[in-house]
């Protein structure tokens, strides 16, 4: 008799009509065969195997280079359950619309069945999914980003539970593209795209949108956070989970190499993950985290030996590059790489001949790599990766760090007074737009806990969940906020950033172990300017003073925007957050009067 999984696969095959069905076993032979077929059909370009062993290049369709948030929907029976920050469609309408596009979409293609585990296979932290796809590129990426194959199938058969993930490239037509989440059915349907964030369904779709819904029901956290271990001079490791909106350097922070003066002291970083954290309360009453992924799907432009030397090492082999520039020697390049733009030119991400300095008809520079070009590489290749990645219970979290890009308002670092205040700090997170994002430059976008595009249910309920979780913990992590992007009157960054950010984390962890002092301010606890180690840095103490300034007038202005944002959630916004709002207002007004 067919299992529920087999029945489901058959049903989807009846809808999409593939020529063949292949069940992925995750083996090396399967990988080699898929790579060969991809190269034959032009889906992958084999790169220089001497210089970049095991590496390939893929080009997406030109209109398919990023996550399409306006085509991404949460499909709950009631609109209110998706909340005011998500696009919503009723399940009936969503299934009907997508079914029309999926119908016959795999004709002439093979349907690959990918059983995958987010988290170590068999860990109580982990969740199993099965993705059906007509894209070999998806299979090859999924085998880097997740644990796939026969072991997972065995585990799945124990409980029969899994997230049903259906993907088809169909015609790669943006007008027939939908990324649909059905949290109540534990189902994801993605059609009409071939871009990673839309189609590697274990990542944003399962590990954040569906998992956030499951974690709310089951009492854990699915968060858009990096996880890193900081080993101090005594050899003791404390772990930090940190959430930042995009373009704030999350991946770089997760694997930073300590600056010389801190390295000399004995500091070392261990990378657990750069994008997603699943956190649970263990029997010791502490919060423990796993990274459900096994790979990085990172942005290429700007990655170099200065911004991220560990990533430069990681992506030298077994890496799939997407939408970067192809050089004549079959290596790759992107804007902000270590090497200068190749004088001999190359083939750009759209497959066209390219030369440095090229401009378009309006005089704008033509980039060789797409600004959102990517690499997919195994975490195990990262020099700072930790063997604890495979630990079924994860790592204990001492501090949660939120951050954003604020040129003026937020100080370099501050600590929340307590968990409830920390939830307010996370819920009011915001970042200023950079040239890399569509919209007005400098405009502030609210992005609570960096989850705005990823929370699979009503965010008002999500905030409540954060508040409730504290009651279940014996020793909740301390919560902090950081801002690496403050500028002086001339618009120059006051803080050097990158590896030097460890100096701030040193204070954060010293606060967690009661080794550092703090001063109270209206927005939270601040370090004294002398508490941040600036040895070996070409920076004056007066800069640190400036970086730690809190301007009550500016913060009172900020409160107006927070009020409008909170207002969107109506009755679903927990009263505790309004309480925090009013307390902050009171403290700021007092400071302004003083
Ligand atoms: C990502 C994102 O790609 O957050 O990780 O957009
Ligand atoms: Mn992300």
TrEMBL record:
Keywords associated with the record: Cytoplasm, Decarboxylase, Gluconeogenesis, GTP-binding, Kinase, Lyase, Manganese, Metal-binding, Nucleotide-binding, Pyruvate, Transferase
EC number annotated for this UniProt entry: 4.1.1.32
All copies of domain Phosphoenolpyruvate carboxykinase C-terminal P-loop, residue ranges: 220-587
Ligand binding (substrate): 67, 195-197, 246, 372-374
Keyword Hydrolase (UniProt): no
UniProt entry tagged with the keyword Amino-acid biosynthesis: no
Parts of the chain that traverse the membrane: none
Quaternary structure annotation from Swiss-Prot or TrEMBL: Monomer.
Protein name: Phosphoenolpyruvate carboxykinase [GTP]
Organism, scientific name: Candidatus Aquitaenariimonas noxiae
